[in-house]
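Backbone-to-sequence.
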């Protein structure tokens, strides 16, 4: 690993640490990270305006915007294109697909925000942002990062599922299993002592083994 690569790795944002601050021009006027304090934020980048995969993703985000909003979450897009290109593209999406994009898109011609969030991946492109998605909580901490290649579109449904899972874990202090969705049982934290491990089977959970138990949030008071 050369010095430049090491520097880039060390500069990458990290989970459960403050998200990189930014102040940027967007299609809805200036935006700062602090504007979203008290709300969840999904910040996502795309390689370029007027491209087919990105268009499908923006349609998906726009259609599901009310669902994100209902979860106290805002959306914020980004690419290294200009605000004028963003405006022209979103108008094209509305004209061609009948979908209005209701959230802002950052103009990042300098790539300052993209570099701060590790959206520029030299193995994919030095001049375009990859499909990176960041979940930032109401305290401005980075809680999840998801990267996709330029050739493949993201699943908006999965992002909604992940957002609900993060919020559930925060509220109830639990973990969620693979493919968890609202209404499913959650995972109980494993015991931390020998004696509590021996007692686990008698604690009223959906018990499989001392380290693996589930519970229903609706019926459990634990």
């Amino acid at each position: 690993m050369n010095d430049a690569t090491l520097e880039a790795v060390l500069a990458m944002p990290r989970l459960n640490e403050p998200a990189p601050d930014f102040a940027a021009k967007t299609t809805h006027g200036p935006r700062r990270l602090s504007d979203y304090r008290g709300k969840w934020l999904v910040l996502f980048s795309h390689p370029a305006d007027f491209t087919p995969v990105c268009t499908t993703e923006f349609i998906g985000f726009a259609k599901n915007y009310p669902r994100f909003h209902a979860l106290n979450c805002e959306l914020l897009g980004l690419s290294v294109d200009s605000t004028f290109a963003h405006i022209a593209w979103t108008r094209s999406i509305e004209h061609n697909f009948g979908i209005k994009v209701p959230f802002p898109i950052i103009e990042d011609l300098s790539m300052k925000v993209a570099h701060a969030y590790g959206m520029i991946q030299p193995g994919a492109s030095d001049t375009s942002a990859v499909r990176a998605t960041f979940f930032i909580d109401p305290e401005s901490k980075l809680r999840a990062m998801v990267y996709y290649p330029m050739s493949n579109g993201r699943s908006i449904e999965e992002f909604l599922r992940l957002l609900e899972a993060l919020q559930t874990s925060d509220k109830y202090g639990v973990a969620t299993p693979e493919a968890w969705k609202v209404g499913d049982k959650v995972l109980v934290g494993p015991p931390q002592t020998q004696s509590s491990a021996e007692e686990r089977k008698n604690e009223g959970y959906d018990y499989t083994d001392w380290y693996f138990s589930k519970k229903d949030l609706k019926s459990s008071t634990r």
